[in-house]
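CORE FACILITY INTAKE
Project code: CF-77B
Contact: R.S. (postdoc)
Sample description: multi-component assembly, two entities in total
Requested service: structural model of the whole complex
Turnaround: standard
Below are the sequence entries exactly as provided by the requester. Do not edit them.
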Amino acid sequence: MGRYSRIAVAASLFLLPVSVFAAGYGAAGCGLGSMVIGSKPGAEQIFASTTNATLGSQTLGITFGTSNCGDHGLVKISKEREVFAQENYTSLIKEMAQGKGENLYTLASLYQCPAGSHQEFGAMVQEKFDSLVANDQTTSTELLSQLENQLTRHPKLAKSCNINLSALN
Amino acid sequence: MQPVCLVAGLLFCFCLFPVVAHSQPNKAAADYLAELQQQAKQKNLGRERVWHLLLKYDKKPFGGTISEADGMEFFNSPQGKTDPEAELLATLTSFFVPLSEIKEGKEHPQCNFPARFKWLNQQLAFDLHRLEIQACDRLDRWVKTLDPVGATLVFASYFMNNPASMFGHTLLRIDSRRAGSGNNLMNYGANYAAVPDTDNAFLYALKGLIGSFQGRFAIFPYYTKVQEYNNWESRDLWEYELKFTEDQLNTMVLHLWELGGTYFDYYYFQENCSYHVLSLLEVANPNLRLKDSFFFSVIPTDTVKIVMAQEGLVKEAVYRPAVLSQMNHKRLKMVDDEKRLLQSMVKGELSLESNTFRGLSTRSQALVLNAYMDYSQYQSMQETSDKEIKIPRSVLLARSRLQADDDGLGGITRFSSRPEHGHGTDRFLLGIGHNAREPFLEFAYRPAYHDLMARDVGYDKNSEIIFMDFKLRYYLESQRVRLDQAKLLSITSLNPYDSLFAKSSWRVDVGIDTLRDRNCNYCNSFKATYGRGISYRPDFFSPLLLYSFVDLKAEFSGDLKQYSRVGGDAEVGAYYDITENLRIKLAGSYQVFVVGESKRFFTSHFITRYALSQDLDMRLELNRYDHNNEGIFSVNYFF
């Protein structure tokens, strides 16, 4: 079945503009199994590159600091919010401005807000957008600390959500 | 005599005691190991399907077995790559290695190969008093964090302006109890990919073909994959939730752990992402036989088809639209005024403070801003910028001040169709035709992939990619077989004009053809064409597609004066879907050859196709090349 189709794709690479190389997005990964960071002395370089079956040919940089990875090769639970906000930053602030969205509700879950309060959470971040994203240099870390500020002040969300990291597992 | 004996005995005791104290358990362990190995041999475990799946054993073409894994740490026996039984016995032995013999920073084999341990334990029922069980902290934390309750096959569909991406990509999402429903972004995705060591496109292609890249499994938070495919490349994702028991999922995750330490030679034909994802599913449930049906190669769309074909395996298919699909959905709902405003925002000509914008209803403002934010998100990912906030903050802020509950969109529009509903990738054609002189029969075969006359469900409806398409004709009166056409590679990428992304269309065609405008007894030429053009579709789902091209052309043939002609052509044409199954194409071109044998002539084409089913269609073709006419009726079968 389609044995030569891959050659076609490969051959087509010569013709296609290889613009995908010049991208600004970095994926993330901690390694897998015994390849995990820290399992070997001298911390091996971890791969976070993908190749499509399509030879889409993008090599993604690594943006995960090793400090975000647990020795089991997954994101440390204590870093989950931080990494999530950082990796999905643009989606997240877009949804904050809209007051709803999957990324936003995922963040709410990371603050232990029950599903029933997600709408309220959305409404709150939309209302407080101006102070959450103070200027166009606001980082994801600053956003989260502002968010935590607002959460603790909110009459309902302060009770239903939990900003303490220890609440996660 | 006696004292001597006593002394000797004492000495014997003293000398021996420490040894006995040390080797007694060793001996017991050795005995138990031998017992287990004996049992394993009796039960022929080395030949079991599960063992072969776990170790990635495959039959060699000329007999024997070889594992696809290429990292030698994957094996416990030096012969492990080719000898399943030796590997099994060595694996049992490794489970008995005392912890003290494990080097610093290394895991005990029980912890390195937990899926093998689990299966062997099920088969041989290890006596835990006789085999010391090692604690595997890291593994335990890993399994506990992943805590799988589901698995989802994720298919990334094609992206704009890249016909090659029609092949798609697959990965496996591990759905965790912790994330729970509605929190799919927080799950992890297992991805198999080549680790490229070059940026050079030529080397890249070559190395991929000959398998000189290493392929490795990696595990990523699913949201990074969503960012990569949905937002960066703007590809729609299809998620197929699969049905497995928790025990099966546990085995799969343990197996994934084992794979982390090894690599495979990455072959684009056979051992690619889709192939390895299928093997993960087989490890989870060895009763599934997914890889067997692939003889030569595995194309991602085919893997979705095979998974869908398994009774009760797929629970649900979920569409996750790409960022531009989300934007286009909003554009579809816009009235003309809103579209114009979006356009001027993109051009940077619209101030949010202007009366034009402020005069709009809240709902309209929200719709335009939402669409603009999607656009801006996509654009920002195509470039690097040192700004933290990629969407203009003024836009975000303006949107945050609008209390539009819902922008009145209702649901989502699917801009791509489910890949498993597409036609097969191989095609066989049988046709009958007539030219000015005589009737003929046509036979053609191509292994890949999609042409613009074929039914486009599951494919990019603006692109075609044809590879190794060989067509023979048998002329009935002159009783001759001729090679009519061999399309080695032909790609067309029509990019219908979009005011936000004005991209030209392009096409390239390399192959052997017949010099149809000449009467030279069906003589062949080798030809190469490259062209650019513009195309237009009134809206995303319009049945009409107009195109035009200007091409450069070179043809080489012994039957041409000076053996060649070089020139070009201008072509215009249209595709129109009368119904879902009935499509027509009209095209005309003017060909000019100025170098070599010079000639100018017109061609015109009328083609119609009726799809009888997903994999079967009929076509009628009327062609005119200069003064030569021909008509062909054909049946195409895709598989």
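Facility notes:
- Residues 331 and 339 of chain B are 7 Å apart (CA to CA).
- Chain B has four domains: 23-135, 145-320, 327-400, 422-638.
Invoice: internal transfer
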